[in-house]
Amino acid sequence: QVQLVESGGGLVQAGGSLRLSCAASRRTFDSYAMGWFRQAPGKEREFVAAISWSGGVTYYADSVKGRFTISRDNAKNTVYLEMNSLKPEDTAVYYCAGREVAAYSRQYYYTTWEYDYWGQGTQVTVSS
User: Fold this and answer.
1) Is 15 left (phi over 0), alpha (psi -120 to 50) or beta?
2) Where are the alpha helices (DSSP H) in the chain?
3) What pLDDT sits at residue 96?
4) How far apart are the first and last CA of the chain?
5) What angle do CA 9, 18, 36 make, to 5 degrees?
6) Partner of 77 for a Cys bridge, out of 11, 24, 42, 94, CB 3.0 to 4.6 A?
7) C-alpha span between 34 and 25 (Å, rounded)
8) Are 51 and 70 in contact (CB under 8 A)?
9) CB atoms < 10 A from the CB of 111, how many?
10) What dihedral do alpha carbons 61, 45, 26, 30 form, nearest 10°?
11) Whether the Cβ atoms of residue 67 and residue 83 lie closer than 8 Å to each other
12) What percent of the chain has pLDDT over 70?
């Protein structure tokens, strides 16, 4: 089992940037496909970005494509979400998620039910 802890959220003005981090507790972190999701008040949790176990494959929601970048550093057991050109509609609690995959898998996942492990979330607020 892996524990995930997000950090890096905060308050930023529209057009600004933030980098979220998600640290995993397990040393076999590199056998996990990872993703970022977000949930705004009164809305369902939605997919943001996903990355394969090696980091070679990434996938983004249309709403963040070109503005957000997901990456990972397996040596540090950490996945990142670089967020640029932030908009007020990006305001939400951001969650990282993980799912164990086979070695060398290029698979990524973009639905909540495909992930087994979740962090506690970090708040991102973008002011207009």
Assistant:
1) left
2) none
3) 97
4) 40
5) 65
6) 24
7) 14
8) yes
9) 10
10) -20
11) yes
12) 97
Q: Distances from the Cα of 58 to the Cαs of 12, 54, 67, 74, 122, in angstroms?
A: 25, 10, 14, 15, 22
Three-state DSSP class for residue 90: helix
Q: Which residue has the tokens 């957000």?
A: 68
User: What's the whole-number mean pLDDT along residues 21-26?
Assistant: 90
Cross-strand partners of 116: none
Nearest CA-CA partner of 26 in 82, 96, 98: 98
pLDDT tens digits, residue range 24-72?
987 666 689 999 999 999 999 999 999 998 888 999 999 999 999 999 9
